[in-house]
């Protein structure tokens, strides 16, 4: 029934059985827009994998599993961020990277806007620095919805460390 609904609506994709009687629609991308991933960060350090690590380094490192390749990464960082953290981000980024120093008092929205102004992508993705990518096709899963002209914003499923849901996306 779901596959037939996709055909009726002209949505390219397939229905995937995910077990326990549930199905997921895997939409097919018809284009490959450039994606700008914008990450505002303060360089906060947290306990990850038993070590004290900057969250931003873990996030950038986790981008490696991405199957989508038409990506640029823009990190907007505070002046106080350590040179070691900046070097680690440069070494670990699997995609072209731009580091933008933010010298003003903390303002999350303004840092996002600074990153957006530097972006050259067709699609802007804003990520928090304390995230970790778990699904290799995460970019495709998000941007395929943007091919629908009635969709202007897409939000991911975010899980906490214990796999409880932190956010189930956005609806506006």
Main sheet record: 4 strands, parallel
Strand content: 25-35%
Rg from Cα: 18 Å
Q: Reading side by side through the largest sheet, how are the strands ordered? A: 7-6-3-8
Q: Distance N terminus to C terminus?
A: 27 Å
Amount of helix: 25-40%
Mean pLDDT: 92
Number of strands: 10
The dominant shape is globular
Unreliable runs, pLDDT <50, ≥5 residues?
A: none
**What structural category characterises the helix and strand content?**
alpha/beta
> Tally the helices: what do you get?
5
Overview of the molecule:
This protein is α/β, with parallel strands linked by helices and 172 residues long. It is 25% helix and 31% strand. It contains five helices and ten strands; from the N terminus they run H-E-E-E-E-E-H-E-H-E-H-E-H-E-E. It has helices spanning 2-9, 55-62, 83-92, 108-118, 138-143; strands at residues 13-19, 22-27, 35-41, 45-48, 51-54, 71-78, 97-102, 123-126, 157-159, 165-168. The strands form four sheets. Strands 7-6-3-8 form a four-stranded parallel sheet, covered by helices on one side. It has a two-stranded antiparallel sheet with strand order 1-2. It has a two-stranded antiparallel ribbon with strand order 4-5. The protein is globular.
Secondary-structure topology with pairs:
Blueprint: H1 2-9, E1 13-19, E2 22-27, E3 35-41, E4 45-48, E5 51-54, H2 55-62, E6 71-78, H3 83-92, E7 97-102, H4 108-118, E8 123-126, H5 138-143, E9 157-159, E10 165-168
């Amino acid at each position: 029934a779901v596959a037939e609904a996709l055909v009726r609506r002209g949505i390219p994709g397939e229905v995937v059985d995910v077990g326990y009687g549930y199905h997921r629609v895997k939409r097919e991308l018809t284009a490959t827009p450039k994606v700008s991933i914008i990450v505002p960060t303060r360089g906060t350090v947290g306990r990850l994998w038993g070590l004290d690590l900057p969250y931003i380094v873990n996030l950038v490192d986790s981008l490696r599993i991405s199957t989508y390749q038409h990506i640029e990464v823009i990190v907007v960082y505070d002046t106080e961020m350590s040179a070691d953290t900046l070097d680690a981000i440069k070494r670990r980024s699997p995609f072209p990277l731009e580091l933008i120093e933010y010298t003003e008092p903390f303002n999350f929205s303004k840092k996002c806007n600074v990153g957006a102004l530097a972006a050259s992508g067709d699609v802007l993705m804003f990520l928090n620095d304390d995230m970790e990518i778990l699904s290799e096709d995460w970019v495709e899963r998000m941007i395929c919805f943007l091919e629908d002209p009635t969709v202007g914003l897409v939000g991911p499923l975010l899980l906490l460390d214990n796999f409880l849901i932190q956010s189930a996306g956005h609806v506006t």
